[in-house]
Fold these 3 entries.
Entry 1:
Amino acid sequence: MPAAISRARACVLGFLTATAGCDIDLIAPVPGKAAVVRAEMLTGNALAALMPDGRLSLAPPTLHGDQVPEAVARLQSIPFARHVTNDVLLRGLAESDRGRWIDPHFLQLCADRYFASAQVAFTEDDPLMRDVLLKRTFGPQWLVPLCNARFVPEVVVQVAVDANPIRIGDKGPDPLEEHLSLITAWVARGLPDYAVTALPVTAERAVTFAWDSLRVRIAEVPQLVVRGSAFQDDGPFAFHIPVGFAVYCHRWRLRLETEVKLRGMTTGGTAGTREVWVSTRDCNGIDASPILSRPLAVQPTTSWVQRGAVRAAVRFTSPVYFEHAELVR
């Protein structure tokens, strides 16, 4: 079953959450070739990160001792993905995303890998901040693409950076690991059969789209941020992220060389800014069309996250409410 049809069917049957997004009228596959960034689009640190093949070198931030380093995330992703795609009970999600069978024997590391920053940070004085499942779910994530023998990306492994001591052996993860514990630490998602890039909107596609839309050079290396949703329910804002959806649910933060004036498509307001955000319209994995966004003027500063009966306070480290935007010419 094609990936778009299988996901649309899942939406209709209620298998995907509203947060994940189920707007099945907006189907726009990833284009037939990856975006290539040109030097004229960049300046400053962004220009220094441009590689000869038109891709950007995305250096991750400095990690501390107990966080999962890049090398571990990449090397452990291969046995984990092979474990998932070899297991008849586990491979359904990845192959439903892909739209066909994934041969685990040919999976290998692709050239790219992505560090997705968290949108929230745990409040230091909250005793529940040490809850490992909360920290894995709402903390930063590695996104490690795996390619087939033709170097076409087929699977992306999402790896929790924080509170993740789980390692994958030749026979897969420790069988004593609880299911919920495992899926918050390691998740394998298949890519749609039509995809030619690991993310619906890569850093290169975000830059070229912003350049085409604004004609202003990007000055800093794009930052990938996990995308969640906040809602108010009888008091403080609650924050939610669907587990394993970071491959679809994220935004790119772009810092511009000069200020541009944007009009919000929801509020109608206009304002100057040197920071724009590029993402897909929603998190359903079907609509891969990039859109330009700007944060709303009013943002929550604190929130809470929950797993079962465990609730912890968090503070926002980046905007959570956005509106589509267009250039005021």
Entry 2:
Amino acid sequence: MKFWKILISIIAFIAFAAIIMLFSSEWLFPEWNGSYSLGNGIYMMEWDGPGRIIVRGSNIHGRTCYGGSIIIPTNEDECDSTGHFTEWVVDATFDDKYIVAYSYNNILKGYKYYIINKSFALNLPSERIVNEYREVFLSEDSFMQACDLKGIKVNLNIKDITEYKKWLSLEFPLNSN
């Protein structure tokens, strides 16, 4: 009988710990939920397919963002026939003043690079952030030059897009890669 009491106590403790971890993950481990704070109310979120999106967070619980106004990519109408974005963020990094990111665009078959100046007011509408505080570059050279002029130390992990192309060819056989 003592064995069963110990076993039930252990199972109850494990269940209690699992429930606590589940509910505290929004506060303690937002990355478990695919949410990465980039500062000033901007979040990078795991999203549709192989990549991520960057949003102005509006659906925030704890330290985890579950949704918001899309900042990258902004062309919501650029979706394929299955409703997936044709552009997604591959990586992003940030400091106190700037967010730098790069995305892969499946229509252009190439990268786009972004610099977001975080000096905007917190109550500024997302459309103004996109139009006034975000810069877009189509070449890595012009992007790196702009970063040098602004004094931004870029530490992006420029990834080989081959894995994404493999995912696209499996998920979207109509795409020509």
Entry 3:
Amino acid sequence: MKDVKGHVKARLITGAFLVAVLAAVVGSWMARHQPERRELVILKEVQTLGELRTVRHTYRDVLRCATSREPADWAAPIPGAAGVVRTLTKNDAIVTYLAEVDAGVDLTRAKLVEEASGPVIVLPRAQIYPPRVKVRIEWRNTGLFWRDENLAAAAQREAEAKVTNAAEGSRIIERAESEVRDRLSQLGQKFELRFES
């Protein structure tokens, strides 16, 4: 009788183990083959669009750029020394530039958020990308005691700052977000969408 009870107990344990393994295998298979939620599919589709640059502004202008040296530390306290050093080392240039500034949204950072109203795809705010600027020195006057070999680079930095400020002032961010919203509405799927606060 003892032998039969041990044999039955062993079969019950083996059977329970097999049922547990079978349940784990079936559960794993169902999890992999269950259709994805509609919102997750849409999110993946949005994220695959990557960095979506939707607005481009082009700027063409002329600017005057000047550089000069500062007096050495020992000469700085001498009255008028700073003015003399700046005058003798002043480099002056008139520069034309052509610049493009893009704005858009990095859709790879989109995420799905569960809200009381339901799932919402949340996008990062639009951003202005670094401008692409081509400068050309039209006229140049070098200092008597110093020729600034980096005058074109200084002019480029000045033009970059100028066009970035102009783009920010032209509501390029708002236009980029509006364009992204319009383009995503063309995906053919209805979903709730908003930008991060």
